[in-house]
């Protein structure tokens, strides 16, 4: 592994610290008793505190220095004075260790006293400090010039997702998003627990992936010598618990679907599934409205959100419209009595991409998702789906061609999917057999026949309503993030290209020039928001690695070309 100049310097400092008898990675407990925000809100002059955190900035002025320390709550200013830290003749701890061997990014512990500076800044006067971790890589900290222009921001999306640990350090709003994520989940959990509902856990590895139309991930269990699937949904196991006598069960689960990725989809995602006996989908709509409105009020102080430049009210009640009426409204076509061939013709007329493997249900879904879904901004329940789209849903009480199902759409995203659950074992088996026909036709998302689930229904499941709420998408809405990757700590990524021992930023420079014979250096620089120092350093590293050549042409223009 080749090291940058800064990384070499930091390793040299590490060696010097060890020579001085300082353990740069001590194992013993450090007795932190205060955090930054708590200090500021409960500030008391001359109060003794013990804090710890990462050095984020330093202003060394001879025998004194101001620095910023970042802990889990935020930043606080600290003041280093040589004579406070080194009260005897030996000034090594300040002059050598602090000034020369510590860096931005290092984690230190501080014993000190609180005071207020002349400009009113609440500050910790350092009485003693301890190195807790030596950072060997420099942080990508943004810099601002005299004109207020910011350089060297850690803003490249791919970099941020790959190095979320850095993203959390240097981009405070990212950390706030994930704190809100946990708060939202806890609010939902409290809402359900207060109703007496039981939180449970069901298998992630399943012999039959059921509960949704989705392509599963498959693995193999060596001891049993059988294929196993990562769950695509919890539904069939949770309904088995309703059969077993629980009146209401829910689970926050990680589910896995081997499908495409975009701003609303990740192959691994979090969903809340809830099943309540003796209820129907009308009751579940009212519960869902109440839950989402309450979460919004508790989180934001009112029942509306600002999302992607739109203000959206989440105040109940939400609008309700059947899927056929929604399609008619947004496309002009009444498809309620159309067969599969007619639906195919309609899809072709509207330039909707379809395949021969798609049955009636998939065709209707394609029409709705392509032409209707994005038009629905305010919270709306799309209700009364056809049977072909809903193999686990009870037949509609007034129309035998429909089912008692709803999806909640907000800002063009499906947030929830719910049913009056099918509890007729004969009808359920028939629906599974129809799914089997689709599978034989080539539909990789068609459901398997789960004979044990049929057996459980034969013992009897009470009337039940169930719902699945996409937690990641709900969090996107509540935190004003338009991409699911922004609300996942570690979204799925392609493996890094490690064939070249260079940073992602250097790779991006190479990508710009790789297909060009030569490029004006100023034109190249204009494509990157780097400070002059960082730009010079990047070009130097690329030259040293033999990846670029810099030349001067007969017009005295400086040109860059790939080596």
List the helices and strands and how they pair.
Elements: H1 5-19, H2 36-41, E1 48-61, E2 64-71, E3 74-81, H3 82-85, H4 92-101, E4 107-116, E5 122-133, E6 143-144, E7 150-151, H5 157-162, H6 164-170, H7 172-193, E8 198-199, E9 205-206, E10 218-221, E11 226-230, H8 235-243, E12 248-256, E13 268-277, H9 281-300, E14 304-307, E15 310-313, E16 319-322, H10 323-331, H11 340-349, H12 360-371, E17 380-383, E18 405-410, E19 413-420, H13 425-441, H14 451-459, E20 464-470, H15 471-479, H16 504-513, E21 519-520, H17 521-525, H18 532-544, E22 548-552, E23 558-562
Description of the molecule:
The chain is of the alpha+beta class and 563 residues long. The protein folds into three domains: 5-139, Beta Barrel (OB fold (Dihydrolipoamide Acetyltransferase, E2P)); 173-318 and 378-487, Bira Bifunctional Protein, Domain 2 (BirA Bifunctional Protein, domain 2); 504-562, Orthogonal Bundle (Arc Repressor Mutant, subunit A). The protein is built from 18 helices and 23 strands. Strands 8-12-13-20-19-18-17-16 form an eight-stranded mixed beta sheet, with helices on both faces. Strand 6 (143-144) and strand 7 (150-151) form a beta hairpin. Helix 6 crosses helix 7. The chain is globular and about 90 Å long. The mean pLDDT is 93.
Provide a quick synopsis of the model.
This protein is α+β, with helices and mostly antiparallel strands.
Comma- or semicolon-separated keywords:
563 residues; alpha+beta; OB fold (Dihydrolipoamide Acetyltransferase, E2P); BirA Bifunctional Protein, domain 2; Arc Repressor Mutant, subunit A; 5-stranded mixed β-barrel; 23 strands; globular
């Amino acid at each position: 592994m080749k090291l940058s100049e800064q990384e070499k310097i930091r390793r040299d400092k590490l060696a010097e610290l060890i020579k001085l008898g300082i353990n740069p990675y001590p194992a013993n407990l450090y007795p932190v008793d205060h955090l930054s925000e708590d200090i500021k809100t409960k500030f008391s002059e001359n109060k003794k505190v013990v804090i710890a955190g990462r050095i984020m900035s330093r202003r060394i002025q001879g025998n004194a220095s101001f620095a910023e320390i970042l802990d889990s709550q935020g930043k606080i200013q600290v003041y280093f004075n040589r004579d406070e830290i080194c009260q005897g003749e030996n000034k090594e701890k300040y002059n050598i260790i602090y000034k020369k061997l510590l860096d931005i990014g290092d984690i230190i512990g501080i014993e000190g006293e609180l005071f207020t500076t002349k400009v009113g800044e609440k500050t910790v006067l350092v009485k003693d400090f301890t190195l807790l971790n030596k950072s060997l890589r420099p942080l990508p900290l943004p810099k601002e010039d005299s004109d207020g222009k910011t350089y060297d921001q850690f803003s490249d999306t791919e970099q941020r997702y790959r190095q979320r640990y850095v993203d959390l350090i240097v981009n405070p709003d990212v950390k706030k998003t994930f704190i809100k994520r946990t708060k939202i989940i806890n609010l939902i959990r409290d809402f359900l627990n207060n109703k007496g509902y039981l939180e449970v856990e069901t298998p992630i590895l399943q012999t039959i992936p059921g509960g949704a139309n989705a392509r599963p991930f498959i693995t193999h269990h060596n001891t049993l010598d059988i294929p196993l699937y990562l769950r695509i949904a919890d539904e069939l196991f949770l309904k088995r618990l309703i059969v077993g006598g629980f009146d209401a069960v829910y689970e926050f689960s990680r589910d896995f679907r081997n499908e495409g990725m975009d701003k609303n989809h990740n192959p691994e995602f979090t969903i809340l599934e809830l099943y309540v006996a003796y209820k129907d989908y009308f009751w579940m709509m009212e519960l869902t409205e109440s839950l989402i409105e309450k979460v919004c009020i508790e989180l934001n102080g009112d029942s509306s959100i600002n999302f992607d430049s739109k203000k959206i009210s989440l105040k109940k009640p939400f609008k309700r419209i059947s899927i056929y009426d929604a399609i008619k409204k947004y496309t002009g076509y009444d498809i309620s009595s159309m067969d599969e061939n007619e639906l195919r013709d309609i899809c072709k007329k509207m330039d909707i991409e379809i395949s021969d493997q798609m049955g009636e249900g998939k065709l209707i879904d394609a029409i709705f998702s392509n032409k209707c879904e994005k038009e629905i901004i305010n919270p709306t329940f799309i209700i009364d789906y056809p049977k072909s789209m809903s193999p686990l849903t009870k037949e509609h009480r007034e129309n035998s061609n429909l089912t008692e199902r709803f999806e909640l759409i907000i800002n063009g995203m499906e947030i929830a999917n719910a049913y009056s659950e099918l509890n007729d074992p004969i009808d359920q088996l028939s629906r599974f057999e129809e799914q089997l026909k689709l599978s034989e036709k080539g539909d990789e998302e068609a459901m398997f026949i789960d004979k044990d689930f049929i057996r459980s229904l034969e013992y009897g499941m009470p009337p039940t309503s169930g719902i699945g709420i996409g937690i990641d998408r709900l969090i996107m809405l509540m935190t004003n993030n338009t991409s699911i990757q922004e609300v996942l700590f570690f979204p799925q990524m392609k493996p890094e290209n490690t064939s070249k021992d260079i940073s992602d930023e250097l790779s991006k420079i190479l990508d710009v020039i790789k297909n060009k014979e030569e490029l004006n250096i100023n034109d190249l620089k204009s494509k990157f928001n780097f400070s002059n120092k960082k730009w010079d350093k990047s070009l130097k590293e690329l030259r040293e690695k033999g990846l670029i050549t810099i030349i001067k042409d007969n017009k005295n223009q400086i040109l860059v070309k790939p080596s």
